[in-house]
Each structure stands twice: as structure tokens, then as C-alpha cells.
Amino acid sequence: MISVEEALERILGLVEVLEKEEKPILDCLGQVLGEDAYASFDVPPYDNSAMDGYALQSASTVGATAESPSILRVIGEIAAGHVSTLSVEAGTAVRIMTGAPMPKGADAVVPFELTDEVERRHAGRHGKQVGIRCSVGIGANVRYAGEDIKRNGLVMRRGKLLRPAAIGVLASLGKASAVVIRRPVIGILATGDEVLDISQPLPPGKIYNSNSYSLACQVRSSGGIPKLLGVAPDRAEQLSAALRCGLDCDMLITSGGVSLGDYDVVKDVLAAEGDVSFWTVRMKPGKPIAFGVFERKGEKKVPHLGLPGNPVSSMVTFEIFARPAIRKMMGMVDFSRRYVTAIMEGSIRNADGRRVFARVTVSKKGGQYFAKLTGSQGSGVLTSMLEADGLAVIPETVVAVEPSDLVEVMMLDWNEVDGF
Fold first, then answer.
1. Residue 348 near residue 397, CB atoms below 8 Å
2. What kind and span of H or E run contains 56?
3. Is residue 184 within 8 Å of residue 305, measured between CB atoms?
């Protein structure tokens, strides 16, 4: 058996960053920018008001207070999206809306609530004059041209993960599309004579193919595009034919067929048609794993990751190995989940010197995280993943975790945990 770290290193060493593509920016969310993004103009493109209020010369407000306001003559109004030829001089002001261009001569804005506009309106004296009830300095409530982004400036470097704010910034630059690293297409194949598609009746001795659906959703949540290849029986010829249907994918993931049983043939097919890197890892759940490459005639090799058939083992090994590989193919450099240190509220046994990934719920009380097992930890108990916020990682050298011991938890659903 090899370590988790060595297995992951071998996998990441065999997958490569994919090529670039240009897409509408709304379709680029969660992808990595493939080239530097520059601004062709200032953002904002002109000096504008940050508040609804009055644009004026700050010198006109010197000494103004609520008890002794500065009375200014109102010479007009500017709405957002409109340009005015008005010019502000000492003792004058322009009523202005948020985002409207600053009029010539004005160097500050006083918001409506710091004027006597409401009282004047109620008294029927609104529009000709306004009383300013505070003193402001130059630049108060003004957004200057280029304050956010300078013309010809580098806005985002290639390699940037495009989150919602990044998409918004691209839109503010008038960019309708972006060059990004494309999403990998991941072929997913379940194996086993006992496995049936969910559209079929369930006779005795059979189980439904849950793995492909769990894995497809994990692929999608990792940023990839899943391609379901169905179910292949435990016969080398049919398994090989099914896998060839996925050789147009960027990576193949199978579930089942990697143990030591007489009918576990995935590793045999992999050895016959490609290269096998390893097939056992020192971890629990998920010891039997195959990794290698299939030959795609005349083209590059297709990486293949053979996961265990037990549903929990399949999902956990995906998190540890497939997710980082997918993210590398997408051009990301941060492959890891977030970790928290938590107080264990139960006990965990580790009798055989493997790294344990225990399914836990995580809560936060008084600034401290607490972890609790989701129930039975059998590798076939898929509902143990259903409630899991994270995986408590127990090192190979730790034989037991007792209540109140500290554990490191790899978070799976960070945003769904109350109090985070």
C-alpha cells in the first residue's frame, strides 16, 4: 500500500491543465481566467456622486451647522445617466442623484438628509434654495474617474478563479466574453453484475447504480462536466468496450472492480490497455483504488481513476483524489478543502494503521467547533454521507480518538454549517 500523499502526487503528475476557450461571461462562473484582463477605460469613467444630495463647492459649507445652515441657491438638477452643462459657483448648488456626473465647479456632495430640503418642501419653498447643515471637505461623497480601475490597468491576472464579483468586474469593463480554461469532461462508469440502472425493476440480488449519480454530482460540484457511461458487467470484454465509449473524455472514473475478488476486473483491463500506477492506498474507507491511463489511438492518453464499489468509499476517494485532479485540469492551483480543528464528541477506533476519514457533523458553540459521527461508519452506509458536513481525518499512527480529543476536519459543506 502507498500513502494518500503519494497516491495524490502520482495522480496530479499525470493530469494536465486543459486548453483555453472563449465563452460569454455569464457561462464562465467557477472557471479560471485564461489570459490577463485589462481595462480600456477608467471605471468609473467620470467623476460622479456617491449619494443623492447636492453637488456644491466645499468652501460654501464652511461653518455650516444644523442651527446655522449655509443657504445656497439651487441652479438645477442632474439625474443618473444624464450629462449637464451646469456650472457650480460659490453660493450655488445642484441637486444630484447617485451615479450622476459631477457638474463643473463642484468638488463635494452633501446628502439630502444633511440639508433642510424636507422642511422646505413641506413649507412650499422647495427648489429655489437649500440650507446645508454641515461642513464638508473636498471630495466628500464623490467617486472619482478611475477610482476603481485605471485605464489600461491590469484588472485580473490569468489564473484567477472567476467568482460572482469577478464576473461583475468583467461586465463593468464592457467585456461580453472571457477566455477561460475549459471544464473537463469526466466519463463515469459503474461496474458489477449486481448493479442496475435506476430505470429498471429491481430483482433479488441486484442493487441500483447510486455511485454514478453521486459521482456525477461530485464532478459537477468540482467544476467538471459529467458524462454517464452506464453500467458494465464483470467481464473484461464488455468493460473494455464500455470504457472505449468514454475515450473522448478528459478523464475516466469507474466504481467497483478494483478489489481482489475473482470478478474485480477493472485493474486487469487497465493493465491490458494502458498503464497501472497503483491499486491500493493506506486509507479507510477506500483502500482498493486503481489509477493509470488508457491509450487513445493517435492522441494523448486518457487518465483513469478506478474507485471502490462501496458507495461511501467511492465518494470519499473522489474527494481525496478526483476532485483535486479535476481542479488542476481547470487551471486551479488550490486543490484543498477547508479544514477546521474540532473537539470530538465521540470515539473513533483505528485498528489497522490506515488513515481514517470519518463522516461527521460539525457545529460551532462558543467559538469552538465540535465534530460528531453521523452514525454507522460502514463503507456501504451511504446515509452516513448524507448528514456529513465534513470528514474527520485520523492519522495512520493514531489508534483511537476519544471524546474531547481534537481532530482535523476536512469540510465538505462549509456554507451549510450553522454558525460558520
1. no
2. strand 53-56
3. no
> What per-residue string of b and e applies to 152-174 under the rule 16 or more CB within 10 Å gives b?
eeebbeeebbbeeebbebbeebe
Closest of 300, 297, 309 to residue 212, by C-alpha:
309
Q: d(Cα 184, Cα 220) in Å, to the nearest integer? A: 10
Classify residue 235 by burial, with Cβ atoms within 10 Å: 0-12, 13-18, 19+: middle
The three grid cell numbers given for residue 17, joined into one nine-digit string: 491543465
Place of cell 433479488: 204
E strand intervals along 192-224: 195-196, 207-208
Q: Which long-range contacts (CB under 8 A, 24 or more apart) does 362-368 make?
A: 362/389, 362/390, 362/409, 362/411, 362/417, 363/417, 363/418, 363/419, 364/417, 364/418, 364/419, 364/420, 365/419, 368/342, 368/343
Give yes or no for a contact between 78 and 24, defined as CB atoms under 8 angstroms apart. Answer: no
Interatomic CA distance for residues 20 and 263, integer angstroms: 41
Is 303 in contact with 325 (CB distance < 8 Å)? yes
Cell 456650472 sits at which residue?
87
CA angle, corner 174, sides to 171 and 179, nearest 5? 75
Q: 290-327 burial, b if ≥16 CB within 10 A, otherwise e? A: bbbbbeeeeeeebbbbbbbbbbbbbbbbbbbbbbbbbb
Cell 477566455 sits at which residue?
Answer: 179
Q: Cell match 469540510: residue?
A: 411
Q: How far apart are CA 252 and CA 246, in angstroms?
A: 7
Judge whether 136 and 60 are in contact, CB under 8 Å: no
* Rounded CA separation 369/410 (Å): 12
Q: How far apart are CA 18 and CA 151, in angstroms?
A: 31
Query: In this structure, are residues 392 and 378 in contact, taking their beta carbons and an 8 Å threshold?
Result: no
DSSP 178: E
pLDDT for res 420:
39
Q: What is the pTM of this model?
A: 0.85
Beta pairing class for 225-232 and 355-365: unpaired
Distance in angstroms (rounded) separating the CA atoms of residues 261 and 249: 28
Low-confidence ranges of the chain (pLDDT < 70): 259-264, 278, 296-300, 414-420
Interval 361-404: pLDDT, tens: 999 999 999 999 999 888 888 999 998 999 999 999 999 999 99
Residues in the chain: 420
